[in-house]
Sequence to fold (245 residues):
Amino acid sequence: MNTLSVVIITQNEQRNIGRCLESVKGVADQIVVVDSGSTDDTESVVRSFGADFVHHDWEGYAQQKNFAESLATGDFILSIDADEALSDELKSSVAKLKNEGFGQNEVYEVKRLTNFCGDWIHHCGWYPDAKIRIYARGTSRWDGVVHESLIFSHNPKIVPLSGDLLHYSYYSVAEFISRQDHYSTLAAQKDQGKKVSLAKLVFKPMWKFLRDYLFRLGFLDGKSGYIICRTNAYYTFMKYAKRGD
Fold:
């Protein structure tokens, strides 16, 4: 049977990390948590689960995940964020996959369901939000500044798993707006110097709202759907406005 290493990066995640670690009990052969300087009780919670806890100064999302994966010893890696957790159905899917054996040249995709201020969001372009999260160790690397993604050294077959990866992303609207402002700054820095036309500055945010709220049925998610779509449009505006050209 192949072994599975669960890899997580953290910073001040005491409100989330216990739920995350509890959800992978029974399927993880190793849990690696790389922390970039938490000042809360993250470390004590992690150690209470018997996980490996390693401090590593922050280098960026992709670099931090790459470092964490360099510490993994399992044949396969399950990459999960501290504010995520396996649903019961997804945990059963992972357990079944381990028992039956991972496929050659296969990577495994999960559907991510996000909780926004207590509401599960099924539209707005946020669901199913498919992510590759299980793959053979040493076959990929993380790349990207804001929304990091996996780059594979081969052309794998993508296999979907049943069940949702539960994403407890935002506990308040203020937190959501603050984080989108931060992400827009990172995106602007990445594309600094690229010209932005007035038309793009005006119409890109408008299209983002219309697409997510109307065509992606964000209005079906009620008040939370409206807030998400408006704030995502704000993010689009800010990432262009902050380029400073």
